[in-house]
Each structure stands twice: as C-alpha cells, then as structure tokens.
Design brief:
Layout (H helix, E strand, L loop, with lengths): L1 E3 L2 E3 L3 H10 L1 H17 L2 E2 L13 E2 L4 E7 L2 E2 L4 E3 L4 E3 L5 E4 L9 E4 L5 E3 L2 E2 L2 E2 L2 E3 L7 E2 L2 E5 L6 E5 L19 H18 L5 E5 L14 H11 L4 E3 L27 H7 L4 E5 L2 E5 L3 E6 L2 E4 L4 H12 L8 E5 L14 H9 L4 E6 L6 E6 L5 E6 L20 E8 L2 E9 L9 E4 L9 E2 L5 E2 L5 H4 L3 E5 L3 E8 L1 E3 L9 H10 L4 H4 L6 H5 L8 E6 L3 E8 L4 E7 L2
Parallel strand pairs: 5-15, 5-16, 17-18, 18-19, 21-24, 24-25, 25-27
Antiparallel strand pairs: 1-2, 3-4, 5-6, 5-9, 7-8, 7-10, 10-14, 11-16, 12-13, 17-28, 20-21, 22-23, 26-27, 28-29, 30-33, 31-32, 33-36, 34-37, 35-36, 37-38
Helix pairs in contact: 1-2, 6-7
C-alpha cells in the first residue's frame, strides 16, 4: 500500500486484511479516512440515476451495487453482504458495497427477508448470492424476490450424507451403491414428506455431503445436481470438514486464520457462501463454518470459528429487523456442546455472546448420533442444540448410526423464534421406527472388538445388574424416561456398562449385524458409542409389567408398556 497527496493508491486485498490483523490502530485511521472521503465526494450518475429519482447510480469507491426488488418495486431494509461488510437496501431497494477484498469473499449475498423467497433457484438453493470477479470497476448484482406467507412453515434438516459413488474395486467398497441409495431410497422419502407438510417447506444440509478424498468420483456439484433433481423445494447448505479443500490443492502447506477462506473454494463454487444468513417467518437463520481446517478434511479443529466470520456475525445480527425476528437458528457442522453438555470452545462462547439477546436453536451434524443439549444465554434466553444422525448411517452399508439411531432426517416447526416441534423421519428399512428395545435375557457376554494391534478389547460388565431382568430402551429424539410402575430406570444416563448384551442384541439383529461383523475390523473403533448420547436408558424390572413414559425436548409424552413373556 502507498499513500500520496491525500489519496489511497493501490490498496490490495492482502494489504487490507493484513492491516486489519496486524496494524489495528492504523486500520482504524484508514477506515475513518475512507468514510470522510465518501461523504465529501459527489455521486456519478448511471442512466440518469440520482439519490432522488430512485434509479441506481454509482458511488465513489463502491465497486459492488445493485437492487433487491419484488414485483418490480424496490424492497427496503434488506441486508446485503460481501462476507465482511453488511449494508441495507434503501427505500428504493438499492444497495452499495465498497469491497476491496474480492479474492477473500468472492460472493455478494442477501439475507432473504422474512415473508419473502427468491423467485429463482440457484442450483440447489435459493438465488440469494452472486459470484463476483476480482476485477477493477463496478459490478452490478440484482436480486428478485416474491412474497410468501411463512406463518406455518416446515424446515427439513439432513446431516452427513457422505455420498462417495464408491465401487467394489474402490478403497471404500463397504459404501458401494451409496449414490443409488441416496437418489432412489432417501430423496423420494424426502420429497414425499415435504409434499405432506402444510405451508412452505425449506431444507438445510448440515455438512459432509460428500468427501474431498473421493471428489474424483463424486463432487459437491454432483451432490448439488442429484439433490436438486430429486426435490422441488429450496435447500440451504452448511459446510462440513469433509467438504473442505486439501491445502495442497490450493498451493499451501497448511491453513491459518488469514487463508482459511481458501479451504472453502470448492464448496463455494458448487453451493455458494460458506457463511451467510437468511430469514423465515419469525426466525433469523445463521449458517457458519465452525471447522477450522489445518491441512485437509481429516486435519482440523472442530468448533472453532475464524475471526472474520465472528466480525461478520456481529454486523449481521445488528442488521436484523427485531420487529419481525424473535429468535435465531444456527446451522453448522460440529456441536458447540461437548459430551458433558458444556459449551466446548472459546469461539462457541463468543457466538452465544453475540446472539445472547435471542432464543437460540442450534442444528448440528458431524457426530453421527442423536443428542439434545440445553442451556441459556448470558441474557437468560433459551438455547437448545440438536445433533442430527448421519443420513448414511454407518457409511450406507447399514442405515444405523453408532448408537443405534436409524438414518433419518428431522422436521422442525417454529413459533415466535423458537422450535416447537421436532420429528424424526427414518427411511428405508427403518421407516416409521420410533425406538428400539433390547433385553438381557439371553445375552451375557463381553463383546470383543479387535484393536489395530490385533488385541481384543473387552467392555466392562455390571455383574449385579446382569443377574436381574432388564430392558434397554433406545429412544432417539427423547430426553427423559420415567418408570410409572414395575421397575427402576437410570434417568438420563447413557449406561454402557450394559453394552455387552446391547451389542450382542445388535449382532443378532440382521439390520445391525454388519456393525459387529469382523469383515470390517476397522469399523467398530469409531462406531462404538461413548457416553455422549442421552437417549438410551436401562430399566430394571421388578414385575412382569413395566410402564414407562418417554419425553421429548418439548415435553411431549409417549407411553410404553413392556410385558415379560
């Protein structure tokens, strides 16, 4: 960067952000100087446009501009961003952005306002973004909306589809036919469920749609096109660790805070921005990338958000129309709560602090299991985090997740900014299942899993309880189990001292046998559950009939009567 005669000359993208990171004091002075310069200079007309007649016109130093319209009329107050700055459309639906960093955030996007949808689809999702070019001169991007009644809408969420288009000769033969299952088993169920919903339907994918190591066979663009061909509603996307580029592919030996954006290059090309926002009804949705990639898809720090996203998030939430928006829904890949149900990182706490004035519903993938965690913000607002099971189950060769939860998507309803309904929707062989029951009548052994050394690893057993009649209840989406009569329950505790007969039951169940099958000796090491899911309870029976009540996060009750035979 150089300075002469009171003018800023040749401010490169790199200089701009290095000043921001290293020379904060100088950057603030530069920012103030640019603001004064913008106020002092006049406006250059385009097609006769002026500030008074409503037409679009060029502003000094603003290289991005455009309009947001509905039925030919400008829509005022729509937030528009380049991933760094956030502005709002004026009373005529016009916006301007002064963007010196087009190589860092190569999209301009709107936060689709409440009560509107885009008129067109952009690939899989709404037409809410435009790819920019890193060129001199002014670029114009216009967006067109239509009004929609969002009083009663449904959100459908999926996670971790992991489609690889594997084949028998490939390195992941266990996942053979995954593309066929995704297109012909899952997508028809996804669409038919959407058809049954009242009001508009929207979808969101919570990351790991594919895997970077298999992009030679199946890319993010393949995922986009397959999904778009199978559904008629618009689908938003969050990025997962497996959706990031290998650092070697972008000419780097590793990523850091400054160049983290390069790890999202393929995702952006296929699906758009990796962090952005939109509004539906009374909810403001924020999509974030909380996978901090070090080198590649399996070398990363989860639940870490780079400072550029956090800075953008502060500006984004300031632009929210609080007369319409009552709560915030965060969609990202990795959980902010750890297995002890505590917020797990500094940047996760920072996100909660930024959004502390709103009830928060957090939608998560990544862990391939079901879990619900609750807390409150520093202002006392409600927080609920839902982890979604993998759509692929155990890599498509078994539609069960690591703790027995079936492969499924989830449907949500919201009212006044907070979720009011969550429904599990299993598909395929597990369709309509709500829970699994296992008893210890004939299974009393310790299931060995072979470690990489070839030494068998054995689980502990609870010998006292093993001599008593007991039932394991696996009820995904539930958070509480009460015994009404005939027994004692371990409330809210995921008791895997009982895992020996639990796993034996899984092995005797044809749908789950492949989890424990020695044909896949490496599988169980990551497939075995830990004490991180709180929807499995042990009920020790004291009579032949046991009555239990299961509750979900919203207090809805389902009663089961268990009868000994």
């Amino acid at each position: 960067m150089s300075e002469a005669h009171g003018e800023i000359i040749g401010v490169s993208d790199d200089d701009f952000f290095k000043l921001f990171i290293i020379y904060k004091g100088k950057y603030m002075k530069l920012k103030f100087f640019l603001l004064v310069m913008l106020v002092a200079v006049g406006c250059t007309s385009i097609d006769g446009g002026t500030a008074d007649n409503g037409a679009l016109y060029e502003k000094e130093d603003c290289n991005i501009m455009g309009t947001v319209t509905c039925d030919g009329k400008g829509v005022a107050g729509v937030a528009v961003s380049d991933g760094v700055s956030v502005t709002k459309t004026d009373s005529n639906g016009r916006y301007w952005l002064c963007t010196p960093h087009l190589n860092r955030t190569p999209e301009v996007f709107i936060s689709v306002p409440s009560g509107y949808e885009t008129t067109e689809r952009n690939g899989l999702g709404p037409d809410f973004y435009r790819h920019t070019e890193n060129i001199d001169g002014v670029q114009i991007f216009n967006f067109t909306l239509k009004e929609v009644d969002q009083t009663d809408y449904t959100l459908l969420a999926i996670a971790d589809s992991h489609v690889l288009a594997a084949n028998e000769a490939g390195p992941v033969a266990a996942s053979t036919n995954d593309r066929e299952y995704y297109n012909n088993l899952f997508l028809p169920k996804f669409q038919s469920y959407a058809d049954s919903c009242p009001g508009p339907v929207y979808g969101i994918a919570l990351g790991d749609m594919t895997q970077a190591g298999s992009w030679s066979r199946y890319t993010l663009a393949n995922y986009r096109d397959d999904t778009a061909a199978g559904i008629d509603f618009m689908m938003y996307s969050a990025i997962g660790n497996h959706d990031h580029d290998n650092c070697s592919g972008v000419g780097l030996s590793s990523y850091d805070e400054y160049n983290q954006h390069l790890s999202r290059r393929s995702f952006r090309a296929a699906l758009g921005p990796a962090y952005y926002s939109f509004n539906i009804g009374t909810e403001h949705y924020v999509v974030l990338d909380n996978i901090f990639v070090n080198k590649h898809e399996t070398s990363y720090t989860s639940n870490k958000i780079d400072p550029y996203q956090l800075a953008w998030l502060r500006r984004d939430i300031e632009a929210v129309d609080r007369t319409k928006i009552k709560g915030v829904v965060i969609a990202m890949h990795a959980a902010i709560f750890n297995s002890s149900l505590k917020i797990a990182s500094e940047t996760a706490n920072e996100v909660v602090d930024i959004l502390k004035d709103y009830d928060l519903t957090i939608l998560i993938g990544h862990s391939h299991l079901d879990r619900t965690a609750t807390s409150t913000t520093p202002k006392g607002k409600r927080i609920v985090e839902f982890i979604h099971p993998s759509l692929a189950g155990v890599a498509w060769f078994n539609l069960r997740n690591i703790e027995g939860t079936p492969a499924a998507f989830c449907a949500y309803r919201f009212k006044d900014g907070y979720s009011t309904m969550r429904e599990y929707v299993p598909f395929g062989e597990n369709e309509n299942e709500k829970y699994s029951l296992y008893d210890n009548g004939e299974h009393s052994y310790t299931y060995p899993i072979t470690e990489g050394t070839g030494v068998a690893k054995k689980y502990e057993s609870d010998k006292l309880d093993m001599n008593l009649p007991a039932v394991m209840i696996n009820a995904w989406g539930k958070v509480r189990c009460d015994v009404v009569s005939g027994g004692v329950v371990s409330k809210g505790y995921y008791d895997l001292k009982y895992r020996d007969w639990f796993w034996r039951s899984l092995e005797s169940d044809d749908r789950n046998s492949i989890i424990c099958n020695s044909k896949y000796p490496n599988g169980p090491d990551w497939q075995q559950p830990g004490k991180s899911s709180y929807h499995i309870w042990k009920v020790v029976a004291s009579s032949p009939t046991v009555v239990v009540d299961l509750y979900d996060h919203y207090g809805n009750k389902e009663r089961l009567t268990l009868q000994a035979q």
